[in-house]
């Protein structure tokens, strides 16, 4: 009887092995052979699921973004206030755990490559729109619900919060102990307070 193979589980194992390689050695170290070693499989199994290194790297990046945005979206649903929603959204994608540190390093590596790879750059722009849509949706709902001022500029506040999140990702990766949870929340509320109704 032929062995039943879980294709999604196999792809996920390969993608997570690619994360390990990128997070520990950098994106330039990714090769089918290196990822195969990390995944405990053959290079042939990887090429069966991914046509080339760029597809593997892009899939690893997409999996990171999907996981981060899905987690942020779940957390936002559980919060009532606009401040709480924005806090949990930003906090969900920051490198506050070992796993999130790894995922943040994967993202940073991909973003660096996007400067030289038009396909990667297009993917980054597309996925960044997803993140901005989540934040702008919270801001819009905050205005409509009366928590934020009627004259609050959705784009400005969305830009400010997404840029804060990007900056925290870099700052926390380089000097994590400088950005305590309380300090991160203070920064976010300092941005948000002028917009509160």
Short description:
75% of the residues lie in helices and 0% in strands.
Defining traits:
mainly alpha; 197 residues; 75% helix; single chain; elongated; 9 helices; Tetracycline Repressor, domain 2
Description:
The protein is mainly alpha-helical. It has a domain at about 60-195: Tetracycline Repressor, domain 2, CATH 1.10.357.10. It has 9 helices and no strands. The longest helix is centred in the middle third of the chain and has 27 residues, at about 120-145. It is elongated and about 60 Å long. The protein starts with 6 loop residues before the first helix and ends in a 5-residue tail after the last helix.
Question: What are the segments in which pLDDT stays under 50 over at least 5 consecutive residues?
Answer: none
Number of helices: 9
Mean pLDDT: 89
Rg from Cα: 19 Å
How far apart lie the N and C ends? Answer: 67 Å
- DSSP E strands, number: 0
The CATH class of one domain turns out to be Mainly Alpha
> N-to-C SSE series?
HHHHHHHHH
CATH superfamily of one domain: Tetracycline Repressor, domain 2
Q: Major sheet: size, sense and barrel closure?
A: none
In the CATH scheme, what's the topology name of one domain? Tetracycline Repressor, domain 2
Q: Hey, roughly how much beta strand do the residues contain?
A: under 5%
Helix proportion of residues, in percent?
Answer: over 70%
Secondary-structure arrangement, i.e. CATH architecture of one domain: Orthogonal Bundle
Specify the overall morphology: elongated
Structural class: mainly alpha
């Amino acid at each position: 009887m032929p062995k039943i193979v879980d294709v999604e589980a196999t792809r996920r194992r390969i993608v997570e092995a690619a994360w390990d390689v990128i997070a520990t050695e950098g994106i330039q170290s990714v090769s089918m052979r290196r990822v195969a070693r990390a995944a405990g499989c053959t290079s042939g199994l990887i090429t069966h699921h991914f046509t080339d290194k760029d597809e593997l790297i892009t899939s690893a990046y997409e999996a990171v973004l999907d996981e981060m945005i899905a987690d942020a979206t779940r957390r936002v649903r559980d919060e009532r206030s606009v401040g709480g929603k924005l806090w949990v959204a930003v906090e969900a994608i920051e490198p506050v755990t070992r796993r999130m540190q790894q995922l943040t390093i994967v993202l940073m590596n991909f973003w660096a490559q996007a400067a030289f790879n038009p396909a990667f750059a297009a993917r980054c722009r597309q996925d960044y729109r997803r993140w901005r849509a989540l934040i702008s949706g919270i801001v819009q709902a905050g205005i409509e619900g009366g928590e934020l001022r009627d004259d609050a500029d959705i784009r400005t506040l969305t830009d400010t919060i997404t840029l804060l999140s990007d900056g925290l990702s870099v700052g926390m990766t380089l000097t994590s102990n400088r950005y305590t949870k309380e300090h991160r929340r203070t920064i976010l509320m300092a941005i948000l307070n002028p917009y509160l109704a």
